[in-house]
Amino acid sequence: MTYEKLSAASKELSRWLDEDALPLWRDRGFHGEAGGFSETVTLGGQPTDAHRRARVHPRQVYCFAEAGVRGWTGDWQTPVQAGLAFFDRVYRLDSGFYAALADKDGQLLDTSFDLYNQAFAILSFVYTARVYPERQAEMAARTSAMLASLKAGYAHPEAGFEEDNPARLPLCSNPHMHLFEASLACEAAEGFDATAWTAFSDEIAALCMRRFIDGENGGLREFFNHDWSPFDGEKGRIMEPGHQFEWAWLLARWGERRGNAEALAKARRLFEIGETHGICATRKVAVMTLLDDFSVADPLARLWPQTEWIKSAARLAVLSQGLERERYVQSALAACAALSLFLDTPLAGLWRDKMKGDGSFIEEAAPASSFYHILCAIYELEDCLAALDRASGVAV
Do the Cβ atoms of 54 and 99 come closer than 8 Å? Predict the structure, then answer.
């Protein structure tokens, strides 16, 4: 029965995506090659004049490219081609890296380096190559050039990357997570340098298991000193439930590909921490921040951790059997219910971003950056349910 409920929830999320969200963000959140993607759209459906972070554009390019791969019949082509052209024209610097922020008219406001933005540039390149085979060689070359430039200018002496050059602290696990995600996509992409990307994925996985994940309690930290020890003070104690789930999903995928039992065990432990300590007992949603004793430091609940909860639960269900699989299926269903709270808006296809401790939402425009999380979760759930169907004939 739980499986059937999860399947029904998945079908409704997929319907919402195809019929409500993709059309709305294509029509109201995208402004062609001259304007790129809006940072936010009001809950009434109007794009705002908010400054536009660089990350929004490659994330939206990914969304529409992936929708094209999945067979969405709307116009995904224009947002991919024109969106990437806008991103390149406005944000790309002479260094080959991407700046951080522009206004609605495409004037750069912040040219600083952010590893996070380069990670999403790579992700958009590999998905553009998937939907436009004629650009495969170009995009493969661009990803390889980006990786080479990152290593040349920002490589950390041990592994991973510095936050800037000259180096600044704290070092962060989060941008490495998105580089890991992009690298896993590149290593599997036709025409890309599989050897180099596989080695890079292995480097990040090893860094995560050796440094990001605490050796005693199994939780993933966010901030570090230059030797990858936990950063000083309370900042170094932060463990975000959403990132326990997100890294669990990535390590599970990597561990499955490599046959690495350690990675799968650590992924399950990360998930356990997120589920046991990061889900509010009354609101039934994943909260924002824990400390390393697993106490809640910030009870605010944002949309994106709910999507990572879905992805990790679904993937771990595929990698489990019997009662353990049933447990992950039940958790995925609970995560879908949590996400649905944020998607309940007067105009279908939008979302709320922040739930307060009392269960009410902060009234604000929907951030475009959340679409990447939502769409990826919906498609991952579809894929995992299909894998469960193949493995067990729907019975779990």
Answer: yes
